[in-house]
């Protein structure tokens, strides 16, 4: 009987998992493995952890859930901490494995690791087989090679919608055969074991994000079937507060606890059984954005991480003012709409899409700070960090990505007033501004008497604005 390692990475699920299906089809004995790659928890070039507390906890929970779900079908999960390029080949040799199956990734760090492993495996005549699993549309179903991917999203979307059929999901296996005689299944590490400081759950968070396929499926059932919030998604998706203005599927999608094809099938079912409208379509539309950024990363490789992006603009000058960056990072810019969003990120690991667009625009277009710093900070903090969606959106906002508009600019004052008219969101995250009259909350131009009246002391308990917000009035 052949023996196969299924090396889980960003595909932490049983449903719609081609790797498991392949093993079952072959009647193979399986060794499921997850490896906490220690480099992912070390400090990045700016001195903060590449993966900070929120995502570390979510990942640990997701791995635990995967292990439990595998155990329920006669399997298990071998968990290790270290460098996969040593661990995977060693395991393959030790247990006389014939092939190692993985989901294909598109970015350099992952590919480098894969290449080293592939080389080591080949020396022992063991295969490494990759399967494309992360998108709604399968890369092989696109009607062009990836180098011809359109640089404008709409063109990509229209082509895909017209020509590509979303493939059916693979059913969750009900039984798998493990390879016998594994002595040690390893322990799931804690945050501290990975060198990450664990933080308390903030009761103000938008949603109680719990890692794993089980919680991901529960969230999907809630958002669609139990509450029908999906039927208003298009109207609510730009809001800022609460559990249900948007799906919050992102964190589960990022680690593969939810498959985009599974979400798609559920939406189609919902449309048949309940209601089909612009909102149900719009969630699929957003999933196509997610696909797009993955394909962009595949097309452009490392360019998405570089300052020039995929659309170099020699006239763009970036600064590296560390003090300004700290102010942005900590939510101390003195611009309430920006600070509220950054404090939500810092305290919960989540921020709405509207918030992300505004804080990214403020950093890159108003402060003109090296955008890769902002992207790296998001990488550290976001609970739903996804390498392609994050860096792809950052180059887009910074003006060196796929935005067909040359001079897109977010007027923070206009945005704040439009999406947080009465400052409810601002006051939620900046309690020091709680008593400020709604009509002053965005500009915060207050004389001494008003400051006294509203219990705020600008420059003392809330910072002076870093830039003159009156520029947005003009
Ligand atoms: C600067 C910046 C950085 C971002 N970084 C990330 C990231 O690291 N990980 C991430 O998943 N998303 C990222 N996004 C995209 C988007 O903000 C989040 O996907 C979304 O806010 C997550 O909330 P939700 O699941 O409730 O989204 P919903 O509005 O419910 O959307 C459903 C799903 O569609 C996908 N989606 C929606 N908008 C986008 C988008 N603009 N780009 C790609 N996919 C999208 C997500 O998978 C999302 O879960 C970023 C956006 C910006 C502007």
Provide an overview of this structure.
- This protein is of the alpha/beta class and 474 residues long.
- The chain folds into three domains: 1-133, 3-Layer(aba) Sandwich (Rossmann fold); 135-167 and 214-300, Serine Threonine Protein Phosphatase 5, Tetratricopeptide repeat; 322-472, DNA Cyclobutane Dipyrimidine Photolyase, subunit A, domain 3 (Orthogonal Bundle).
- 43% of the residues lie in helices and 6% in strands.
- The protein has a five-stranded parallel sheet with strand order 3-2-1-4-5, sandwiched between helices.
- Helix 2 (53-72) links the parallel strand 2 (29-37) and strand 3 (78-82).
- Helix 3 (84-94) packs parallel to helix 4.
- The structure holds flavin-adenine dinucleotide (FAD).
- The site of flavin-adenine dinucleotide (FAD) has 29 residues, from helix 8, helix 10, helix 13 and helix 15.
Tell me briefly what this model is:
The protein has helices at 18-26, 53-72, 84-94, 108-123, 153-163, 213-226, 233-236, 250-254, 260-273, 278-300, 322-329, 336-348, 353-366, 371-381, 387-398, 412-419, 424-429, 448-454, and strands spanning 3-8, 29-37, 78-82, 99-103, 127-131.
């Amino acid at each position: 009987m052949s023996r196969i390692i299924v090396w889980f990475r960003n595909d932490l699920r049983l449903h719609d998992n081609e790797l498991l299906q392949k093993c079952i089809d072959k009647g193979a004995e399986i060794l499921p493995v997850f490896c906490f790659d220690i480099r992912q928890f070390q400090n990045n070039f700016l001195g903060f952890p590449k993966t900070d507390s929120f995502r570390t906890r979510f990942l640990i929970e997701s791995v635990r859930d995967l292990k439990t779900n595998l155990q329920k079908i006669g399997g298990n999960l071998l968990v290790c901490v270290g460098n996969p390029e040593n661990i995977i080949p060693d395991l393959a040799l030790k247990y006389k494995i014939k092939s190692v199956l993985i989901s294909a990734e598109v970015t350099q760090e992952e590919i480098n690791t894969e290449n080293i492993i592939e080389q080591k495996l080949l020396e022992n005549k063991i295969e490494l087989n990759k399967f494309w699993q992360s998108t709604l549309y399968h890369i092989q179903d696109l009607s062009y090679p990836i180098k011809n991917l359109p640089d404008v999203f709409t063109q990509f979307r229209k082509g895909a919608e017209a020509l590509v059929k979303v493939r059916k999901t693979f059913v969750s296996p009900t039984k798998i055969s493990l390879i016998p005689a594994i002595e040690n299944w390893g322990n799931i590490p804690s945050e501290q074991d990975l060198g990450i400081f664990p933080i308390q759950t903030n009761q103000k968070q938008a949603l109680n994000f719990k890692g794993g396929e089980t919680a991901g499926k529960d969230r999907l059932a809630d958002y669609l079937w139990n509450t029908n919030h999906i039927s208003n998604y298009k109207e609510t998706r730009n809001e800022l507060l609460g559990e249900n203005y948007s799906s919050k599927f992102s964190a589960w999608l990022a680690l593969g606890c939810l498959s985009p094809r599974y979400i798609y099938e559920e939406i189609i079912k919902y449309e048949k059984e309940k209601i089909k409208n612009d909102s149900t379509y719009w969630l699929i539309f957003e999933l196509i954005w997610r696909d797009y950024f993955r394909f962009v990363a595949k097309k452009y490789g490392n360019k998405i991480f570089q300052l020039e992006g995929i659309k170099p603009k020699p006239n763009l000058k970036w600064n590296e003012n560390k003090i300004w960056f700290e102010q942005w990072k900590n939510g101390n810019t003195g611009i309430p709409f920006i600070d509220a969003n950054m404090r939500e990120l810092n305290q919960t690991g989540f921020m709405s899409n509207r918030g992300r667009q505004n804080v990214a625009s403020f950093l890159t277009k108003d402060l003109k700070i090296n955008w890769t710093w902002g992207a790296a900070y998001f990488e550290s903090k976001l609970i739903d960090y996804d390498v392609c969606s994050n860096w792809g959106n950052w180059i887009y906002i910074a003006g060196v990505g796929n935005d067909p508009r040359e001079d897109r600019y977010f007027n923070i004052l206009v945005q704040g007033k439009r999406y947080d008219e009465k400052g409810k969101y601002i006051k939620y995250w900046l309690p020091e501004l709680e008593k400020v009259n709604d009509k002053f909350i965005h500009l915060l131009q207050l004389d001494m008497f008003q400051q006294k009246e509203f219990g705020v002391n600008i420059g003392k308990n809330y910072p002076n604005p870093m830039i003159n917000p009156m520029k947005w009035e003009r």
